[in-house]
From TrEMBL:
A UniProt-annotated Pfam family: Protoglobin
An MF annotation (GO) of this entry: heme binding
Matches recorded under InterPro entries: Globin-sensor_dom, Globin/Proto
Protein name (record): Protoglobin
Source species of the chain: Rhizoctonia solani
Residue ranges of domain Globin-sensor in the record: 15-118
Top-rank taxon, per record: Eukaryota
Length: 157
């Protein structure tokens, strides 16, 4: 894996342009419209290989590990939080803005995760898993993987 500094300038520029367009779209979206959530879901899907948008249909599949998607969302959260806190806004406006940013980024993160992390307990195994102790399964759905379902095994370098 190379760092962003070692990428060609044109590729860095394309990635920044897509991030800028994504940020504009998600922070000006109408969250009462289901199409907003469909868009966010397609953003998650497209990073796992399938062409979720027309502009990706004739291109090589895009494979980005979930970890990198989550790290980018964390970076965006940090960047936006600092920008809001640097302004001399009323406390209520600052709080409301930060809560809204947090909600949007967590929604996007959840819609990334649904395409990367397999269901913890398939319906056929549900009754068997209820008997297992909590000590054996706590937190494993988020951080662990079921056998043979790692997102990195399907990604290309």
């Amino acid at each position: 894996m190379s760092s962003i500094q070692t990428l060609p300038v044109s590729l860095r520029s394309i990635r920044k342009d897509f991030l800028r367009a994504w940020m504009f779209k998600v922070f000006t979206a109408d969250y009462t419209d289901i199409k907003t959530f469909e868009y966010l879901d397609k953003v998650g899907l497209m990073h796992t290989g399938p062409a979720a948008f027309q502009h990706r249909e004739k291109k090589e599949p895009l494979h980005v590990d979930y970890m990198h998607c989550a790290l980018l969302l964390g970076h965006v959260h940090n960047m936006l939080t600092r920008a809001v806190l640097a302004r001399n806004l009323p406390a209520e406006t600052t709080q409301t803005t930060l809560v809204a940013i947090n909600k949007v980024l967590w929604i996007q993160n959840d819609l990334f995760a649904r395409h990367y992390i397999p269901p913890r307990h398939p319906a056929s195994e549900e009754s068997e898993t209820k008997d297992k102790s909590a000590a054996n399964s706590w937190g494993w759905g988020l951080f662990g993987r079921s056998s043979g379902s790692s997102s990195s095994s399907s990604s290309s370098s």
